[in-house]
Amino acid sequence: MNIETIKETVNLSLGGKITFPQVVGMLLKEGIESYHVDFVRAENRYYTASGEIYLESVPHKFPIAAKEFSASSVSAIIKKVQAGKINYQEFIEEVMAAGCIYYIAYLAGKRVIYFGREGDFHVEHFPKN
Question: What CA–CA distances, in Å, run from 123 to 9, 12, 33, 70?
Fold first, then answer.
């Protein structure tokens, strides 16, 4: 796992310079099997199949976890970012407003699961291209 590539991926993504499919491609090349974006703790965790873990602090601003989670809003926000109508930073702000406190991207499993603070969740499968 190349830590510099992970840091570069985070910075490019937060800067709106790369898309989610590009993030997936970069991380898969580094052997990343899944990653966990935690808005409350302002950190991302990256996992490889061989058991390596890397923790990266990120500048998520999340003063309090929203109590209500709206799976339908999360789904609509995902569609907006996939269509290029919003960038990743806007995506983060909108999914947090929809009650998402963290998400886990399963790159090998081709899905992302978004979680609310009371255990609510939404599963989004990668688009079939």
Answer: 23, 25, 17, 12
**Paired strand residues for 37:** 44, 103
**Residues 115, 1: Cα–Cα separation, whole Å:** 27
The pTM (predicted TM-score) of the whole model is: 0.91
HSE-up of 65 (CA within 13 Å, CB side)? 15
- Cβ-based neighbours of 78, under 8 Å, separated by 6 or more: 91, 124
Tens-place pLDDT, residues 44-98: 999 999 999 999 998 877 767 678 999 999 999 999 998 889 988 899 989 999 9
Both structure tokens of 16 = 């709106």
CB-based burial label for 45 (10 Å; 0-12, 13-18, 19+): middle
